[in-house]
């Protein structure tokens, strides 16, 4: 017959759980008592007449049962009552009506009771572990964490933190060029913590703006100390980012502090972000100036704002338009995200081109969506459209050949008249 394991050693096991799972020993002792009571209640119908004493110092416990002493032959419930003759075996001075307390040795209840206890404990410990994970991360949303890659799947990666807790990094929250192997360390920010059905799920992100923010806090002491404030961030993860900073100390150049000597501070951030180009600009509360800085390196000739609708019409020299829009439209897209304005870029009309006509004048003949597509590539006037090769209009404005030909025909006719 196999030897039964003494449950007395379980308190020691809980001390180990404290080290591994960050669960307080006092909490574990409370769970131990509750688990014993659950098993006793199942066995005897009630646990109210039991006293359970746990001694964390010695690592042991005692169970005492209180029963009323009744006349011999009057016992109706052996758990709540004990006969007088039985009681006097313990103390000859006992009388009917008194209460007798005797120690109960749990292991004597048999293998089934011990298994029941362990199952109850296992369930409660699992719940405690889940609560511990949730409580650890619920207030960490937006904070930087490091974890080790444990498993890589098609749609997400499973990470393990220093305490053995599981974190999920979905594919959608990974930088497109991210590549990790099992065992490598990943840095990310906590994006979301869910505890649905007491099953904590921690989602982390490397594409969040907060990830870029936390990296700057790590690399730039002035940001960490509050001397420089990050006022706005715009990112297209893995491609390009813009960050607007402001200094509370006139002696500190916020852009210079963020970039560092010869780019020493920003290089580490760029590497972490898989060579994501980062533009650092000075923040200003002046929307016109802020938009102008956000469109850097392009130089703006003039700007017209509609603050109510958060729209901006920006006019630039023809050679500056492509700089403002940027490769793949990234520069203007990020500028819109950073400033909160919907920015339209137009070619500036020189004085000798006063006879030029804005495309808006042709809305009776050309569909609105076609005009907006042409504006999107910096063509706000008839002559700016006619100045571009037909193939360029088709490719950049993403228009059908027949549509471009119709537009060119309408615009040419206007000037021939």
UniProtKB/TrEMBL annotation:
InterPro entries: KH_dom-like_a/b, KH_NusA_2nd, KH_sf_prok-type, NA-bd_OB-fold, NusA_N_sf, S1_domain, TF_NusA, TF_NusA_bacterial. It holds the Pfam family KH_NusA_1st. GO terms for cellular component: cytosol. The keyword Transcription regulation applies. The keyword Disulfide bond does not apply. Residues 142-207 form the S1 motif domain. It comes from the Bacteria. Keywords: Cytoplasm, Elongation factor, Protein biosynthesis, RNA-binding, Transcription, Transcription antitermination, Transcription regulation, Transcription termination. GO terms for molecular function: DNA-binding transcription factor activity; RNA binding; translation elongation factor activity. It is found in: Cytoplasm. Gene3D superfamilies: 3.30.300.20, Nucleic acid-binding proteins, NusA, N-terminal domain. GO terms for biological process: DNA-templated transcription termination; transcription antitermination. Monomer. Binds directly to the core enzyme of the DNA-dependent RNA polymerase and to nascent RNA. Belongs to the NusA family. Participates in both transcription termination and antitermination. This is Transcription termination/antitermination protein NusA. It comes from Barnesiella viscericola DSM 18177.
């Amino acid at each position: 017959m196999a030897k039964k394991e003494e449950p007395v050693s379980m308190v020691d096991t809980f001390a180990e759980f404290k080290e591994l799972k960050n669960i307080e020993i006092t909490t574990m002792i409370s769970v131990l008592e509750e688990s014993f009571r659950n098993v006793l209640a199942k066995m005897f119908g009630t646990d109210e007449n039991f006293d359970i004493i746990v001694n964390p110092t010695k690592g042991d416990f005692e169970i005492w049962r209180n029963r009323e002493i009744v006349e011999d032959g009057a016992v109706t419930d052996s758990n709540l009552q004990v006969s007088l003759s039985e009681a006097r075996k313990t103390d000859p001075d006992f009388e009917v009506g008194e209460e007798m307390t005797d120690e109960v040795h749990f292991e004597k209840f048999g293998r089934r009771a011990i298994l029941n206890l362990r199952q109850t404990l296992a369930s409660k410990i699992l719940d405690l572990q889940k609560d511990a994970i949730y409580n650890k991360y619920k207030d960490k949303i937006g904070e930087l964490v490091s974890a080790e890659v444990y498993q890589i799947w098609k749609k997400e990666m499973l990470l393990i933190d220093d305490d053995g807790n599981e974190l999920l990094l979905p594919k959608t929250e990974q930088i497109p060029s991210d590549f990790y192997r099992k065992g490598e360390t990943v840095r990310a920010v906590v994006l979301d913590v869910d505890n649905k059905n007491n099953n904590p799920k921690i989602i982390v992100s490397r594409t969040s703006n907060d990830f870029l923010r936390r990296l700057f806090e790590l690399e730039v002491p002035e940001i960490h100390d509050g001397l420089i404030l990050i006022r706005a961030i715009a990112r297209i993860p893995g491609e390009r980012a813009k960050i607007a900073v402001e200094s509370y100390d006139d002696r500190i150049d916020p852009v210079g502090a963020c970039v560092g000597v010869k780019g020493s501070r920003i290089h580490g951030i760029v590497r972490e972000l898989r060579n994501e180009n980062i533009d650092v600009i000075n923040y200003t509360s002046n929307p016109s100036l802020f938009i102008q800085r956000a469109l850097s390196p392009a130089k703006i000739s003039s700007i017209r704002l509609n603050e109510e609708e958060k729209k901006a019409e920006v006019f630039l020299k023809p050679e500056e338009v492509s700089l403002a829009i940027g490769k793949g439209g990234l520069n203007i897209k990020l500028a819109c995200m950073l400033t909160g304005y919907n920015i339209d870029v137009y070619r500036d009309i020189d004085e000798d081109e006063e006879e030029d006509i804005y495309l808006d004048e042709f809305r009776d003949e050309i569909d609105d969506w076609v005009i907006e597509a042409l504006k999107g590539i910096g063509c706000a006037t008839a002559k700016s459209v006619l100045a571009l090769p037909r193939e360029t209009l088709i490719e950049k404005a993403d228009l059908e050949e027949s549509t471009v030909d119709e537009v060119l025909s309408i615009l040419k006719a206007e000037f021939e008249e």
